Amino acid sequence: MSKALVCPCEDVTTEELNHALAKGYRDMESVKRYTGFGTGMCQGKQCQSTVARYLCEHGKLEAPALHPFTPRPPLFPTELSTWASGQVDPSMAPVGGVPHVDDTLETSLKPAAPVPARAKIVIIGGGVMGLSLAYNLTLLGETDIVVLDKSYLCAGASGRNGGGVRMQWGTAANVQLARRSIELMKGFARDMGINVWLRQGGYLFLAKSPQVANLLSKSAELHNKYGVRTQVLTPDGARDIVPQLSMKGVTLCAYNKDDGVIFPWPFMWGYAQKCQQKGVQIETFTRVQGFEQSSGLIRKVRTDRGDIACDTVVLASGAWSPEIARLAGVVLPNKPHRHEICSSEPLKPFLGPLVSVLDSGLYFSQSMRGEIVGGMGDPHEPAAMQMGSTFRFLARYGQAMTEQMPQLGAIKVLRQWAGCYDVTPDNSPILGRTPELSNLLQMSGFVGHGFMMAPAVAERMARWMATGQSDELFSRFTLNRFAEGRLEREDMIIG
């Protein structure tokens, strides 16, 4: 029975469910991500109950622990052109939509045992930032580490993004960090023993307005200065790379062939598995509830599973960082902004680079399995921890997509979801020590690009923490720069 099929759409077998259980994935959301069941044409309608029953029987789980995975709109696979025909008011803020089912897993899957009573380092946030930092600390001999996350791994922004990794940025710091990150990603499968499907098909940026065209031109000069081979192209030159593009309204393009896309979930799993092998304790379904402080230091992290005494706390919770910081009396300027995304039925491979119209925030690429995965920011999206899905997004995305690639109007959208950008006033991260709480270290505010920066940022932060060596990242991007008025502006933000 090890080859018995449980998900016809994605060819998932009982053997793969056994692998997921052996890896420690016991909730429906994590098993869905590990095996791919429920992500095909039927969106779990045929297989969800079968998988739930199998996990109860073979994973020895009680039925109350098996909440259904979060349903994704649309209800049925629907052609993109149908969504593009929808009428939306471009001046209005998004309203309504399908709500996100928030953290229903925590009560039934919370571990019964208390958290460790003490750890040298506590990292709050089990996303790619927190996990990559923990991993890099282990390489320098630090293993007395606890990583806390309030849900399952991949529940936050690290598991909800499109997987794009690019060196095309507007500041020297980001260009260099991204270049180093991609270097590390190239060796990830070898070093971590898990395939992240890195595909360096490039990023092709399209500009419509003179302002965005000027930004692409100036940024390309900066890239070339730091060894990134970005080319400025005419629309006709860009069409040589992606012949299907209409180039409607496009005046100038920029292309770097060394940019690419990776698969986000195994990227996080690889870090998590290596951390655990080296002795790091990863505590999921564990909420931080407060801190014990004295003499300008955090002495304990309070959780719903007990307190952890510690020497150092790292806040790496992305868009959730401000609410956790407030528990320590710290005010962060970060604001969460929803960004919606969707995936299509698989097509025969045809699209090399990730394509982005920087003016509108549209981006799309083709995955290794053939799906078109894309999203589009909304300038009227209010700041809020909102991860529901809207018709407005599909209409705007469909219109922008079919304008640049009309033949994609015939593809069917299979699923839609959202995550939150962690937005700072200058679109640059907050790193380093917290004023008046010197052992609370900041690692947030990456505005949607933390996923691609994590390997390089974590490498440098681990070295800074373990050795005390000076590093300008952790003096330049500190929280107090906002009070001092020394902003570090980054403008090459998609969306």
The CATH topology name of the largest domain reads: FAD/NAD(P)-binding domain
CATH superfamily of the largest domain: FAD/NAD(P)-binding domain
Query: Number of helix segments?
Result: 16
Helical proportion, percent range: 25-40%
Biggest sheet: strands, sense, closure? 9 strands, mixed
Reported CATH architecture of the largest domain: 3-Layer(bba) Sandwich
Instruction: Give the N-to-C terminal Cα separation.
Output: 47 Å
What's the domain count?
3
What strand order characterises the main sheet? Answer: 3-19-15-18-17-16-7-9-8
Regions with pLDDT < 50 over 5+ consecutive residues? none
Regarding CATH, which class of the largest domain? Alpha Beta
Calculate Rg over CA atoms. 22 Å
Global shape: globular
Structural class of the helices, strands and pairings? Answer: alpha+beta
Strand content: 15-25%
Overall pLDDT confidence: 93
The count of strands amounts to 21
